[in-house]
Amino acid sequence: MLIELGLSKTTTLEVQKRAGVSRGALLHHFPTHADLLSMTINRLIQLNENAVWSEAEKLKDIADPLTRSVMTLANAYAHPSFVAELELWIASRADLVLRTALRSAEQDAIADRDRVLTQLFEGLLDQPGAEKAIGLTIEFIRGVTISSLLRNDKSHQNQLIADWIETLRNLLAADRT
């Protein structure tokens, strides 16, 4: 529901209705809306990894590993599961229970994230500055994804990503000297 309808329409009432359970049964398992949402996190993480590998497969013919890796992440973050996860991140700003659950799930997923990034950026990891470049890329792509929700300007987004790839090239070249 979160992916399909978004956070504002993923209410406990709607979940109860779709699950075909009583209000008491739902509240027994999920006393708060934040408890309910926090249970979606692990599934979103799985879907997001699948999105990365799906996009990697589509872009496997791009010869340049930097371009291929950044484009893979940018395209994966456009998948509804990534957008839903970012929506939870934003909502957690004002919801301590949700923020705590998100931090815990993200902490638990670090090894998986690192495994995915190591595979995705294979061939670049031996370059000085690669770790910094990857970390900055993730933050950049998150920002572009959130901005695209309001702008919906694919050509602008593509230009930003192309500029980012050029910036990364310069960063990696500067770290070699």
UniProtKB/TrEMBL annotation:
Residues 11-30 bind DNA. One of its GO terms (molecular function) is DNA binding. Keywords: DNA-binding. It holds the Pfam family TetR_N. The keyword DNA-binding applies. Residues 1-48 form the HTH tetR-type domain. This is Transcriptional regulator.
